[in-house]
Design goal:
Blueprint lengths: L2 H5 L2 H67 L10 H13 L6 E5 L5 E4 L16 H8 L3 E2 L3 E2 L6 E10 L5 E10 H4 L17 E6 L4 E5 L26 E7 L5 E8 L6 E7 H4 L1 H32 L1 H14 L19 H24 L9 H18 L2 E10 L1 H8 L1 H18 L5 E6 L2 E9 L5 H15 L2 E3 L2 E3 L2 E8 L6 H17 L4 E4 L5
Parallel strand pairs: 17-18
Antiparallel strand pairs: 1-2, 1-6, 3-5, 4-5, 5-6, 7-8, 7-11, 9-10, 10-11, 12-14, 12-17, 13-14, 15-16
Helix pairs in contact: 2-7, 11-12, 12-13
Length: 539
């Protein structure tokens, strides 16, 4: 190996200088950004959220325990129940209702069969009928002790209420009745400011208490969120009642597509949990500020490096400049033609050829990058970017030709089970087979795209036939194509597909058309899946 040739090479010298600068900058940036901000700040935010969730959970637990104890004391003082003589119960309930503001929506007594024997005076009509037997809190009170019922909206007042039931015992230790106190959820756990109002220093937290058993919000800063359905089980939403003492935190993208930091804490023995969430972009805002500072610092440093490298390169390329000057003099006839002097055995003589080869290589890489930018790497289908471009063209052509454009949003039912049980390799092969089947049934002018995961979109332009018959026929073909099982390594996988259909109208754009089809697809999902629904849109 010619060591002198390697050390005298311009490439070697540039690489050495570049590596030294790159290593110094990378080490400084790595320790400043990844070490401090990402880890330390993330841990600090997580600890703060856990503390907030725990505080809310403890407050809720204390409020509920107060109501439990109060209801148990009331049950102990309940007058003896005489069949057919509810007057004493009515009078007693009226007295207690006036005294106990915790149960202002109402008090009632029911027999073990669930039939209501007496009610306290109230504008509420909860429950609306004469029977409270179906309520889970009533059944739990008969089987054990004091229990929380199902939170729901009172039909008379429209307020969100929570029944709390406790058994009533006779002198022989038998459960003879159940005393039910109705409490107002809006006043159960006051959480301060509305969730939509920014907190101090630009921070906003979404704080709620959720009952996983009922899949409902039971306490929130914003009264409009009471009894709102919660998202399906996920990292920050347990599927069932949580164990006492549970505390967890993490980071996840919610159903709205927002990256959030979250923390949850169990609310005592209720099975509920308090949830605190905050957009990651807000929680980690100091990272962005520091990154801006580093950008400015990098610009200054780059200017200094460019100055230094410029001086170094000017010194290194002195032989090239001298050779160029001699060549120019020879072209003007000022010097006789002769070989240019070679000061160092470097790559100057091969520069043009190497540069041309580099251009050829770059052209090939550019073509590959363009293909990757517009196509899904797994199935080879167009991606969202190419789909939007073709949708724009189709909508413009439809407006000129007075035709319609149909967009079918397909979401596979049961695909997650394949991924979870057979692995991602099986899931990838299933997606490729789905793409192949759908490609065989579309027209040449149609576009089949994959948006990601198990979501596909079929764009059918230039539909001139009136009515929905051709569109429904296309949807039926999609259902039939995916009805046959897909075999992988000797195992048959059966899939179904939910299809949302949107037909273009005047003034549509790709986003509105895709959103309408997506909403229609979720309507199919809510109906059990495996079918199609056309989005109901105005002209």
């Amino acid at each position: 190996m010619n060591l002198r040739k390697i050390t005298s090479s311009l490439v070697t010298r540039f690489i050495v200088v570049g590596l030294i600068l790159l290593i110094i900058g990378s080490i400084a940036s790595y320790h400043r950004i990844t070490g401090f901000l990402r880890e330390d700040l993330g841990q600090s935010v997580a600890a703060t959220q856990r503390a907030m969730a725990d505080q809310v959970a403890r407050t809720a637990e204390a409020r509920i325990d107060e109501r439990r104890q109060l209801l148990e004391r009331l049950a102990a003082g309940l007058p003896a129940i005489q069949p057919g003589q509810p007057e004493r119960l009515h009078a007693w309930l009226a007295t207690q209702h006036a005294l106990q503001t915790a149960f202002s929506p109402g008090l009632l007594v029911a027999d073990p069969a669930g039939r209501i024997l007496a009610r306290g005076p109230s504008t509420a009509t909860f429950p609306p009928g004469p029977d409270i037997g179906p309520d889970p809190g009533f059944r739990a009170a008969l089987e054990g002790g004091t229990a929380l019922g199902q939170p729901q909206r009172d039909p008379a007042t429209g307020r969100a209420v929570l029944p709390i039931a406790t058994p009533v015992w006779d002198g022989n230790g038998r459960r003879v009745a159940v005393l039910v106190g109705i409490t107002d959820l809006a006043t159960l756990v006051p959480l301060g400011r509305p969730a939509t109002q920014p907190a101090a220093a630009g921070r906003s937290h979404d704080i709620v208490i959720v009952s996983p058993r009922d899949q409902r919000v039971v306490a929130a800063a914003d009264p409009d969120r009471l009894l709102q359905a919660v998202a399906p089980a996920g990292p920050e939403a347990p599927a069932g009642p949580v164990a006492p003492g549970l505390q967890e935190s993490g980071r996840a993208v919610d159903v709205d597509g927002i990256d959030r930091l979250w923390a949850i804490a169990a609310v005592g023995r209720t099975g509920w949990y308090a949830s605190v969430r905050q957009p990651a972009s807000e929680a980690l805002a100091p990272v962005e500020h520091t990154q801006d500072f580093l950008v400015r610092l990098t610009l200054i440093r780059s200017a200094l490096v460019l100055l230094l490298v410029g001086l170094v390169v000017a010194w290194l390329l002195r032989p090239l400049h001298r050779a160029a000057r001699l060549a120019e003099q020879m072209t003007r006839g000022e010097q006789p033609l002769r070989p240019l002097p070679v000061a160092h055995a470097d790559e100057v003589g091969h520069l043009t050829t190497a540069f041309n080869r580099l251009l050829g290589t770059l052209a090939g890489k550019q073509a590959e990058l363009e293909a990757m930018a517009f196509h899904d790497p797994l199935t080879g289908l167009p991606n969202r970017k190419l789909l939007v471009d073709r949708t724009i063209q189709a909508l413009a052509r439809a407006e000129r030709n007075q035709t319609r454009v149909a967009l079918l949003f397909l979401d596979l039912d049961g695909f997650k089970v394949i991924n979870d049980t057979q692995g991602h390799e099986a899931g990838d092969e299933v997606l490729r087979e789905v793409a192949r089947r759908l490609c065989r049934l579309i027209r040449q002018a149609d576009t089949l795209a994959r948006l990601g995961g198990d979501e596909f979109v079929l764009l059918a332009p230039d539909i001139a036939v009136p009515g929905d018959a051709p569109i429904q026929a296309l949807a039926d073909k999609c259902l039939d194509a995916l009805a046959r099982p897909i075999e992988w390594k000797g195992v048959e996988h059966r899939l179904r597909v939910s299809i949302g259909i949107a037909v273009s109208r005047t003034g549509d754009d790709p986003d509105s058309l895709i959103a309408a089809a997506d909403a229609a697809m979720y309507e199919v999902k809510r109906g059990g899946g495996s079918g199609y629904v056309r989005a109901m849109r105005g002209v």
